[in-house]
Design brief:
globular
Amino acid sequence: MYPLNYLGIVVTALVIFAIGALWYGLLFGRQWMAVHGYTPEQLEGMKQGMARAYFLSFLCYLLLAAVMDYLIVRLGIDTPQGGAKLGAALWAGFLATAGFTAYLYSSEKLATWLLDASYQLVFMVAAGVLLAVW
């Protein structure tokens, strides 16, 4: 078993979380509300469960970063380009395909999947770069 870069994993999870805040807040908040059909009143009602959702999301990001760190070490990736390629490959092979399959069986609009999948691509590439150069 390879030693994990615990500090790098925590920082990467925080970076992913921050990208999400920017993505769904400042950059695409209005589009996110529109594709889900949420009203401002509905968003206010959703705020009660947000602490739990944020905490669980962060735990997921920690696990994601730990697995990516393991793969980066195991594969000997030590350049930003290598980390970016790994992040993009993992996104295409797992996140995008699993997310798209789930979308096919949902009542969501394609724009919902596109918004989420593009966020996932950005954070996977960023995580790969960060962990590869750490």
